[in-house]
């Protein structure tokens, strides 16, 4: 016999005679998910699958996803070129061992088993505490340790909450942990129009930092420059302009740049090392060009540049308590209108959405010059 905590149920759908029901507090929920059972291109390996979720018991929490972003790392994971791999299991009821993709997402608590902390209640929002949960689905079962509760959802949109734990968190940590930056200091970053880059500009501004933001040239570059400046970027320059050290010195007035955040690699990373100041720190967190880092020996020998890598997944595993506090800071800025989300393209995910409609934004997820992050927005009848 299942046991439940009979608290307020929130907007949970009750069983309908039509058979197209989703969930009841006491019944089973039908979860629709994307799954993959082997690595490869998303359009070749992703399938749509449905499975039944029983009512929660003991420390189990039933949740439903509200929004799940499509991050480059999710796609790399499906391709099999990402170091973290989800667990492939028969527990989803697929014929072969499968995993649900997606690492980041926002859920609503639906119902709780009897041993769940009573402060967790139906209707509350939570995000994933770590990677590999499998967020590209509708319903799921979680434990408290899988979730970071959002104590106050007032003033925060579902997409803002769903995208808080990877990109803004990565920007926050890199700005805070590597170069001892203080008000008035300069940092430089490439792919400044990315989700991470836009967060870094805004968090940097909040902390009194000055930023040089490098983007690739494109038609409409002036509009992009204005856009990033309006977020608080001190200067926005193209990759070509970033090669000109005299131009950079004119911007900074000769002030050394203490931190460079590299999302791209290849020549773009080389340019960053050339404009970093003495004892500067180069932090690599992405490899969008898929090219190796080229760091001139002179930068290491004569300017004592320090090279680091950063990975939010690893940091999160090692810093659980600090993570909650950081998420609280970021959500506070969002609530106060001080941190705007990156442009996004929402794909509605309802009971009728077809596999091809879900795969399309995934295929676009790592396309160049897209300018928008894909996010699945789940809809429930
Ligand atoms: N290490 C970590 O902990 C961590 C955390 C978060 C993200 N990341 C990584 O950071 C990167 C950005 O993630 P995001 O979610 O912020 O991405 P995003 O919002 O989708 O933006 C992607 C960025 O990459 C640029 N880009 C795409 N293809 C490129 C290419 N071939 N050469 C140069 N630039 C290219 C885009 O610039 P254009 O507009 O010019 O195409 C854009 O600025 C990804 O590699 C992701 O895996 C790492």
TrEMBL record:
CDD domains tied to this protein: ETR (cd08290)
Range of residues in the leader sequence: none
SMART domains on file: PKS_ER
All copies of domain Enoyl reductase (ER), residue ranges: 40-366
Pfam families: ADH_zinc_N (PF00107)
Cellular component annotations (GO), alphabetically ordered: mitochondrion
Localization in the cell: Mitochondrion
One MF annotation (Gene Ontology) recorded for this entry: enoyl-[acyl-carrier-protein] reductase (NADPH) activity
Enzyme's top EC category: oxidoreductase
Domain of life of the source: Eukaryota
Record's catalysed reaction(s): a 2,3-saturated acyl-[ACP] + NADP(+) = a (2E)-enoyl-[ACP] + NADPH + H(+)
EC number: 1.3.1.104
Family: Belongs to the zinc-containing alcohol dehydrogenase family. Quinone oxidoreductase subfamily.
PANTHER family the UniProt entry points to: ENOYL-[ACYL-CARRIER-PROTEIN] REDUCTASE, MITOCHONDRIAL (PTHR43981:SF2)
Protein known as: enoyl-[acyl-carrier-protein] reductase
Species whose genome carries this gene: Orbilia javanica
Gene (UniProt): ETR1
